Amino acid sequence: MTKLFFMNSNLKIAVIGAGPSGITTIKNLVEAGYKNVTCFEMNDQVGGNWVYSETEGHSSVFKTTHIISSRKFSEYTDFPMPSSYPDYPSQQELLQYFNDYVDHFQIRPYIQFNSRVSSASLTNNQWTITLEDQRKDHFDLLIVCNGHHWDPRIPSYPGHFSGEILHSHSFKNNQKFSGKKVLVVGGGNSACDIAVEISRVAKKTSISMRRGYHFIPKFIMGMPSDTFYSKTLWIPKRIRLFLQKLVLRLVQGKYENYGLQTPDHDILETHATVNSELLYFIKHGKIKPKVNIQSFKNNQVVFEDGAQEKFDTIIYATGYKITFPFFETKVIDYENNPVELYNYCFHPQIHNLMFVGLLQPLGCIWPLADLQAQQIVHFLNGKWKLPQNLDQAIHNQLTNRPFNFIDTPRHKLEVDFHIFYQHLKKEIQNL
User: Fold this and answer.
1) Which run of H or of E encompasses 230?
2) Is 141 helix (H, G, I), strand (E, B) or coil?
3) Shortest CA distance to 412 belongs to which of 325, 350, 323?
4) Closest C-alpha among 419, 347, 333, 422 to residue 379
5) b/e per residue, 28-50, with b = 16+ CB within 10 A?
6) What pLDDT is recorded for position 80?
7) What does pTM read for this prediction?
8) What is the spatial distance between Cα 159 and Cα 153, in angstroms, rounded to a whole number?
9) Tens of pLDDT along 314-328?
10) pLDDT tens digits, 293-321
11) Which of 121, 145, 261, 328 could be 21's S-S partner, Cβ–Cβ 3.0 to 4.6 Å?
12) What's the angle, vertex CA 169, arms to CA 163 and CA 175, rounded to 5?
């Protein structure tokens, strides 16, 4: 496709998703003078995953969720969270924050609610957006902001489990698990949070992990762990990581003392699991650690160490596929291919297609999404240009990452919050 040069405030722009990434994209576009913006949102309100709903079809956080990055490092760049908010705001507080953001910048009129996009197709440099109710419209530019936490990744094991199986995508609260024997599968933030919540009411709660993980407490030396980490960024990386591991060892001891496996990777080489309660609940006998699953026998789970146990329910907290149902896979297929986007935003061939918030940072997505949206605006008005050799620039980003992230699908999108934040900020400022 011939590279498009926009510099046109009448550009007709479609935004998919009015979650945290979508609303900052709208705000930055409108603020820069791009008023012909339409955002398509499948729900009846803004907030995306942070809209709690007991309807299983809606991908949402569960009722008692608190953010795992601190308030300071989760704010938009020009809209601080209220000082009355705690260090780790709740789902209700965050949803209010997003609504306050939308109303403060007066961008609600640009959002069409209850409008699920079923198809996005490109013909003659124009995008045709088709909704579920068959309404259609045409746009010069498409910005995808609907994230990737919606299409559950379900592992497969030999045998058949006769009990209930569900994904963390469907977990809303712990009420239905009262008195049950529950196995949670996974070692990430959702797995640990769900195991803790279920253990409050379940007859038995176990958590199965296929590898050892580093668990970062929410507070270190009385401050949020990400705030503590930010104060060590001046230290050379090798020494900094050594000190991080030393602090965790002093605070928590060896993971083997909890019945957990020893991590086979360095700290920050996987997406950080930030949780202060899992180890506490393990030591209090509320949660039993288990190794990886080997197979199923009716309602029994056979583990790789030979142990067998009966469970009523298995909950897979095993992440999500990177899929976009409105694209044909011949156009976009990041589930089976590398995510080849400059700054995880700009497509190398389709120059009127961009993504915002398609990240998995060691930190919070929203400030990074804000900067991505700002960079899009500077690209559209001609103040910032993509690298001349775009394919090489993308290759360099994919091969020169700040940490040796383990090779799993979720780590395709992994970035270090501070490094990527400074990179985007530098590119924006050096116009």
Assistant:
1) helix 225-230
2) strand
3) 323
4) 347
5) bbbebebebbbbbbbbebbbbbb
6) 96
7) 0.92
8) 19
9) 999 998 899 999 999
10) 999 999 999 999 999 999 999 999 998 89
11) 145
12) 60
Phi and psi dihedrals of 123, rounded to 5? Answer: -140, 125
Measured CA to CA in angstroms, residue 46 lies from 63, 107, 226 at distances of 17, 11, 27
Query: Dmax of the chain from CA atoms?
Result: 65
| Proportion of the chain in helix, strand, coil states, percent, rounded to 5 | 30, 20, 50
Give the integer Cα–Cα distance in Å for 280 and 125: 56
Give the DSSP letter string of 32-96.
TT---EEEE-SSSSS-GGGS--S-TTS----TT-B-SS-STTTSBTTBPPPTTS-SS-BHHHHHH
* pLDDT (0 to 100) of residue 410: 67
Spell out the residues 6+ positions from residue 413 whose beta carbon is closer than 8 angstroms to its own: 148, 322, 339, 344, 358, 359, 360
Tokens at residue 161, please?
Answer: 């489990």
Cα–Cα separations (whole angstroms), residue 430 to 46, 344, 370, 378, 387 = 33, 19, 17, 11, 13
Tell me the CA distances in angstroms from 203 to 182, 279, 337, one per residue in order: 8, 19, 42
Instruction: Quote the crossing angle between the two packed helices 20-31 and 91-104, to the nearest 10°.
Output: 20
Give the integer Cα–Cα distance in Å for 428 and 6. Answer: 18
Nearest to 313 by CA among 191, 204, 211: 204
User: Residue ranges of the chain with pLDDT lower than 50?
Assistant: 1-4
